[in-house]
Design brief:
The protein has one domain (about 10-215). The longest helix has 11 residues, at about 115-125. The strands form five sheets. It has a three-stranded antiparallel sheet, with no helix packed on it. A three-stranded antiparallel sheet has the order 9-10-11. A two-stranded antiparallel sheet has the order 4-5. It has helices spanning about 65-70, 75-80, 85-90, 115-125, 130-135, and strands at about 10-15, 20-25, 30-35, 55, 80, 110, 160, 165-170, 175-180, 185-195, 200-205, 215. The chain is about 15% helix and about 25% strand. It is α+β, with helices and mostly antiparallel strands and about 220 residues long.
């Protein structure tokens, strides 16, 4: 039987870079941010893409002004979207556990490796059913299959940025990078959707924009 501590009142962490306060949750031996990362040093519109240089996006925002981007409801709810270079900040791929890749995460936190995502899922049970334990009970489109958020992870459907120049599937899907490269063009990530309780694992283009969750060192 797994245990977690979402009922503690509440655990929080302040990012010294921008003063944002995040809720955190302990699941097994890991401490995760219970919100998507929102650190936004700059922002680009969807016409800008790269699989080598950092790009930061806010879902549905087509400008380049950080102050304006931070007022958008999608940013306030779902945080920022990062291509893999932005998530990694020039550090090499890692599948170690812990990854030891700080990447875009604040000091004292790191970008989870594929192995760390696997640890989380295995701790909770079968990847075919544990997604409901991770999904928030709000913001997802119906039917939000199996969602209980009993872990307190509060996974959100922040959608993604596609290098075709568009944003897709907010409310339906949530995607989160790992620090683990698949090849020179692809990296591993995990995702959830509204219609199932499955935690999916896949690899895809590094220049796509996805959400980030950080793990405490």
């Amino acid at each position: 039987m797994y245990s977690c501590t979402p009922r503690e009142a509440p655990n929080t962490f302040k990012d010294s870079r921008d003063g944002k306060v995040y809720k955190t949750v302990t699941i097994g031996s890991q401490v995760w941010m219970a919100e998507n990362l929102a650190y936004l040093p700059f922002v680009v519109g969807p016409e800008t893409r790269s699989d080598t240089d950092p790009c930061y996006y806010v879902y549905g925002y087509y400008g380049t002004d950080v102050t304006t981007a931070k007022t958008r409801s999608n940013y306030l709810t779902y945080g920022a979207l990062y291509n893999w270079p932005a998530a990694m900040q020039g550090e090499p791929s890692s599948d170690a556990n812990p990854s030891r890749v700080q990447g875009i995460c604040p000091t004292g936190w790191h970008l989870p490796s594929d192995a760390e995502w696997t640890q989380l899922i295995n701790y909770l049970g079968d990847a075919n059913v544990v997604g409901g334990k991770l999904k928030a009970t709000t913001h997802w489109e119906s039917p939000n299959e199996g969602a209980t958020n009993e872990t307190g992870f509060t996974a959100l459907p922040g959608g993604y940025y596609n290098t075709g120049g568009s944003f897709y599937l907010i409310g339906n899907f949530g995607y989160w990078w790992s620090s683990t490269e698949f090849n020179s063009k692809y990296a591993w990530y995990r995702y959830l959707e509204d219609k199932t309780s499955i935690v999916y694992r896949n690899e895809y283009f590094k220049d796509w924009g996805r959400s980030v969750r950080c793990v405490k060192d």
